[in-house]
Amino acid sequence: MRISLIFILLMGLTISCKQTKKLENPTPTKQLVWADEFNYNGLPDPTKWDYEVGFVRNNEKQYYTKARLENASVENGNLVISSLKEEYNNIAHYTSASLNTLGKQSFVGDIRIEVCAKLPFGKGIWPAIWMMGINRTTVGWPKCSELDIMEFVGHTPNKVWGTMHWWDSNSTEQNMHKSQGSTLMLYDLSTAYHVYGLERRGSEIKLFVDNNYYLTFTPPATAYTGSFVNPLYLLLNTAVGGSWGGDVDDTIFPQKFYFDYVRVYKI
Questions:
Q1: Among 94, 129, 183, 266, whose CB has the most other CB atoms within 10 angstroms?
Q2: For the segment 141-181, what is each residue's pLDDT rounded down to a tens digit?
Q3: Contact partners, residue 11, CB within 8 Å, separation at least 6
Q4: What is the pTM of this model?
């Protein structure tokens, strides 16, 4: 989600459209340990989700609001993050939401994360499903490590990105940042649900869409101690504009990011 990023685009892969938005029942090799099925109405469950608030990063144009139904609501079996073009408190021309599990739930050990979602679209839109180490508040970024399960930018409408970011003693960047990523081509991102996910076994991390793996990553020995294996928290958000989102087409609003479920398994 950071856009001081250097993306190493390892591969592009086209996969078939998914006909249903539900995965098959969990296999015996994975044990469900945390989930939100969004089978309720109103604000997101406050025992599971918190919010980023304000103008947070990357010179983005949206103001992230907290516990505001206009921007984050649960309805018809979905979590909906709504990005709006509106005047807000005389400080912003756009609003959106960024939900996270920091302080609510962290994820350790060998895990599989599945997020079934349908993306917003249009020039300037930048939705993401991602994770960071809970030590971000003490060691900062990128030492906390960042795991971008899925990012999408509206000016490239048929592609999703998955990227790992870390602090590396061999980096030549001022903040010692390095990244490694991959891309996947999909042609129904805003009309169909796909399951975006991550598996972590030991220090090895794999990203997948609809069970098609498209990135395998193992942190180098030069990465900051504990990178990628420390407890992680999950973030769901839609940004507007910014360093990677770019110019914004005001005619596209409102835009909605739909989530059918979020599931975390021990594997």
A1: 129
A2: 999 999 999 999 999 999 999 999 999 999 999 899 999 99
A3: 182, 183, 214
A4: 0.90
